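Annotators were shown the component list below and the corresponding predicted structure, then asked to write short factual statements about the assembly.
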Amino acid sequence: MADQVDAWGQLLAAANAGDARAYARFLQGVTPVLRGIVRAKAGGLGDAECEDVLQEVLLAVHLKRHTWDSDAPVRPWLYAITRYKVVDAFRARGRKIDVPIEDFAEVLAADAGTDPTEAADMDKMIGMLDGRSAQIVRKIGLEGSSVAETGQALTMSEGAVRVALHRALKTLAVLRERHVK
Amino acid sequence: MKTEDLIRALAADTVRGPDLRTTLLLGLLPALAIAVLAVWLALGFRADLGTALLTPVSAARIVLTMLLGVIASRLALTLARPEGAQTARLWPLAAIAVIALGLLAWAYSTTPPEARQMATVGKTMTTCLVTIPLLSILPVGVLHYTLRHGAPTAPLRAGFVAGLAGSGLSAAIYALHCTEDSPLFYVTWYGLAIAGVTLVSTLISARSLRW
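Structure shown to annotators:
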């Protein structure tokens, strides 16, 4: 467990220094654990809904990754974001839950969820983006295109694709917030 | 959309915001410089500023408000991080309030009864109550901007310290002009101005600092 967490810190530090591959590995590494937390706290939500909440958490972790102080341990930072977003997401779904942060340790020891389920909410949000932004997110996410390929397909420069992608993800988080209210 | 697809999209996004400390300093330093300039141009520094800074009872209000501003700014930076709500300690702020109240009590007991009312009301109460909140707008705005850029998980507390930070620093700058040296005056009216700004900042944060 400690090794895993250390690895997260190194990966996120590398990611923040611009290493996209390390960042992907960080996200892939934390996802099963966060999924386990969401499911353990969900009490009655279906797997698909849990996956919606998980994606919300991941989006928040992504957009707030500059708030991690690389001298501080990753775990408290990551779980604080998760806790905030999980409480928020469940409240929005009409459930009041209490998520004591200490509980997370047990969840981690327990089996972390696997089996990625299709989640529906994010698709709805992407549908609410403007056409070009939605295309960029889908090309890179669903089709697995690189930024360069996406740029060629849409006759945009790589820089423009990057900026548009970043804006699109920020907008998704805002839409999320509004949709949820 | 499957989660692995989302991760692919997230990993491709390499645009990352500036870190919080940089955001705060880049905003706060110019904001404070503008406040100093505004006091200097609109009101003027007090003529005996050098002497006042060497008089403990007069210098105390600059020291206390500066201390309040700096400590609260650091707390705001802590509370801008998601895990900050667990680690932020607010008691130094209470300690400053206790020292200020102690100063007030000391001034009350050492001021002759017939002079107390005049010392408390002073001559510039209105200027003080208007100027400090006005000077606070920009610094508090910068702090709120930084908090929004961050990920505060205790929005009310974050808004509270942001209000104290901005108004504390602004009060210290206003003190460069103000000649009311009795703690009966400055603890009361600086305190009221700071409390007002902090209340507004806290109320705003309940809605504005959600993310």
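Statements collected:
1. Chain A touches chain B through 53 residues (CB under 8 Å).
2. The two ends of chain A are 37 Å apart (CA to CA).
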